[in-house]
Amino acid sequence: MPIPAENVVLVDPEGQPTGIAGKLEAHRRGLRHRAVSVFLLNGAGEMLIQQRAAGKYHSPGRWANACCTHPRPGEEPAAAAARRLGEELGIRSPPIFPFGTVAYRETVSPTLIEDEVCQLFTGRFDAAVRPNPAEVAATRWVGKEALLMEVESTPERFAVWFRIYLERHAPALFSAGG
Predict the structure, then answer these.
(1) Pairing of strands 63-65, 47-52
(2) 74 close to 88: Cβ distance less than 8 angstroms
(3) How confident is the model at residue 177 (pLDDT cuts 50, 70, 90)?
(4) 64: which DSSP letter?
(5) I want to staple 84 with a disulfide (CB 3.0 to 4.6 A). Which of 45, 69, 99, 177 is the partner?
(6) 88 has binding-site annotation
């Protein structure tokens, strides 16, 4: 499957830019880079999660938060988050707010490593989503207790970064919907 030739912003341990690399190169070599992840809650306090499309180059078919991406060189993290919500879920002009930053390094396939300094965003969303089938296989809304039980009983069904975010910040993420 072809992998898009996109660039990511490389960063030092404090998240300060140090250069640019191809997305695939950064993941193959485990180079630390910038990322964003968005968490959306509805009025019932449920979180929107998505199942990654089968054609994704890593973690296909796994469940994750509303969306994730890498800011392009010169792109602000909030703009990258908003762009990706539109590309993946058809959500335009989302009301999202910075939540915090998480750094992690994890293997996501036999040949790919995520080493990210990730800006998290949260927001409230109660409208329908229009998933792009090239990016998203399915979406669903799920409550905190049900999600945490599902992740605990079947962790292999969830993207590694999503499990990390939930482990470190689940209570705050479920109360930070904006």
Answers:
(1) antiparallel
(2) no
(3) low
(4) E
(5) 69
(6) yes
pLDDT tens digits, residue range 111-126? 999 999 999 999 999 9
Residue for token digits 């180059």?
Answer: 57
Would you state the pLDDT for residue 5? 66
Number of Cβ within a 10 Å radius of residue 162: 22
70 is known to lie in a ligand binding site: yes
Strand partners, 104: 116
pLDDT at 80: 96
Bridge partners (DSSP) of residue 20 are 9
Strands, E, within the chain: which ranges?
A: 7-11, 17-22, 33-41, 47-52, 63-65, 67-69, 96-109, 112-124, 136-142
The encoded tokens of residue 67 equal: 């969306």
CA angle (154, 157, 159) in 5-degree steps? 120
**Is 167 marked as binding a ligand?**
no
Q: How far apart are CA 90 and CA 146, in angstroms?
A: 26
Task: Catalogue all structural domains in the chain, each as residue range(s) with its CATH number.
Answer: 7-175 (3.90.79.10)
- Give me the pLDDT at residue 3, please: 47
**Residue 27 among known ligand-binding residues:** yes
pLDDT digits (tens, 9 = 90+) for 39-84: 999 999 999 999 999 999 889 999 999 999 999 999 999 999 999 9
